[in-house]
Amino acid sequence: MTENSRRSKAVGTTRVRVRYAETDQMRVVYHANYLVWFEIGRVELMRQFGLDYSRMEAEEGIGIAVAEARVRYKAPARYDDELTIETELANLRGPVLQFRYRVLRESDQMLLCEGETIHVVVGRDMKRRPLPERYAEVLMGAAAEPVPERA
């Protein structure tokens, strides 16, 4: 399978500008900030699909908890760089979602960071719950590698 055939039907893009508070003394972005940007990309991708994460929490009583995160740093982002966060829903299997991310510097399109997060749908009690059907339908249509849950 080629990389292009594994790409989502929808890749969300979000722009951020590196703030001084996100950098160290050398004006290089502190590594943990990439995870914050992954979250920004993920929430915006959900909005692109017509889904409201805060509404899902309030109405359905569920959340999407991070179970695993991987980050590969390629080059540093620096203070005042404008960045593009590319986010895709890579896989969906029942209550487990996998997102992939790429962070690029806008000025030269250099890949600065890539990564992925794996999430589990949970209730307020933090126990695994099924993804509500209306959300599952939308996300299954958008995932690069959807796998229906077996009954």
Please, could you describe this protein's structure?
Strand 4 and strand 5 form a beta hairpin. The chain is built from four helices and six strands; from the N terminus they run H-E-H-H-E-E-E-E-H-E. The protein has about 150 residues and is an alpha+beta fold. Strands 1, 2, 3, 4, 5 and 6 form a six-stranded mixed sheet that branches. It has one domain: Thiol Ester Dehydrase, Chain A (Roll). The protein has helices at about 5, 35-50, 55-60, 135-140, and strands at about 10-15, 60-75, 80-95, 95-105, 110-125, 145. The longest helix has 16 residues, at about 35-50.
Major β-sheet annotation: 6 strands, mixed
In helices, the fraction of residues equals 25-40%
Order of helices and strands, N to C? HEHHEEEEHE
Structural class comes to alpha+beta
Average pLDDT taken over every residue: 90
Computed Rg? 16 Å
Second-tier CATH architecture: Roll
Shape: elongated
CATH class call: Alpha Beta
Per CATH, the superfamily is Hotdog Thioesterase
Question: What's the number of domains?
Answer: 1
The fraction of residues assigned to DSSP E strands is: 35-45%
Give the end-to-end Cα distance, rounded to a whole number of Å: 28 Å
Query: What's the count of strands?
Result: 6
Write the layout of secondary structure elements.
Elements lengths: L2 H4 L4 E7 L15 H16 L4 H8 L1 E12 L8 E12 L2 E10 L5 E13 L9 H10 L2 E3 L4
Parallel strand pairs: 3-6
Antiparallel strand pairs: 1-3, 2-5, 3-4, 4-5
